[in-house]
Design brief:
mainly beta; Lipoxygenase-1; 14 strands; globular; Tellurium resistance
């Protein structure tokens, strides 16, 4: 058996296992929406996670060729490192959410200004914390879908806080983990070198049905520009993060 026979047989075995495909739904331009109700996932806590990586070739040049003879498949896979690991690259991606309730209350959940929200009271959206030190879990926002009748629409967005724009080099992904059913993945794969913010997806209550829609729209400003794009109508000012430990 030749090397190439072994390569293609290995790929075939990967497809036969099928576990990755059956446990996730990827939202794309061609297939941008999914109904949580139809997935049986419209109750419980919805976990929304932002994580990102950066290719080493974007930081320290092309990867070295050593080890390719022992691991030939590496020639097809560019090396990646965690982009928010200290000492590698200085990128601080934040996850936020604009909300509107059925009663008409509007606001934002985000690290800036310490607007962390609440899970068991309006807006039923809560940020778990601001990840500034590169933990593997990234940043997470929870939505209490047991109060879905109070939620009119949510807009989840990512932005680069007070650093050089790097969405073109940062391979970011937002993953939704419903309480039931497959996870939902959205790649921020449209490279916009100067963009500072990205509207990732909306979650809307459409006549009792919770619909997730992929947006992935990059803007060159911050929350105020996203607000204008989606017609939220909030008043914005310059925000700052509190220093760690309150010093």
């Amino acid at each position: 058996m030749s090397f190439w026979d072994g390569l293609f047989r290995g790929r075939a075995m990967d497809f036969e296992s099928g576990s990755a495909a059956t446990n996730s739904i990827e939202l794309t331009k061609r297939h941008p929406t999914v109904s949580l109700n139809k997935q049986g996932a419209a109750t419980g806590n919805l976990r929304v996670n932002l994580s990102w990586q950066m290719r080493t070739s974007d930081i320290i040049g092309k990867p070295k060729s050593s080890g390719l003879l022992r691991h030939p498949l590496r020639m097809f896979q560019p090396d990646v490192v965690q982009a928010h690991t200290q000492g590698v690259v200085n990128v601080d991606l934040d996850l936020g959410c604009l909300y509107e309730t059925v009663e008409g209350t509007k606001g934002v959940v985000q690290p800036l200004g310490s607007f962390f929200g609440s899970l068991n009271a309006p807006p039923y959206v809560k940020l778990s914390g601001d990840d500034r030190f590169g933990s593997p879990s990234g940043e997470t926002i929870y939505v209490n879908l047991d109060h879905r009748e109070s939620i009119k629409r949510l807009l989840f967005f990512a932005y680069i806080y007070d650093q050089t724009p790097a969405f073109d080099r940062t391979h970011a992904k937002v993953t939704l983990y419903p309480s039931n059913g497959p996870r939902i993945e959205i790649d921020l794969d449209e490279r916009q070198p100067q963009a500072r913010s990205c509207a990732v997806f909306t979650l809307e209550n459409v006549k009792g049905e919770l619909v997730v829609r992929r947006e992935v729209k990059f803007v060159y400003g911050f929350q105020a520009e996203l607000d204008r794009l989606y017609g939220w109508g909030l008043q914005w000012g310059r925000g700052y993060k509190s220093k760690v430990g309150g010093v």
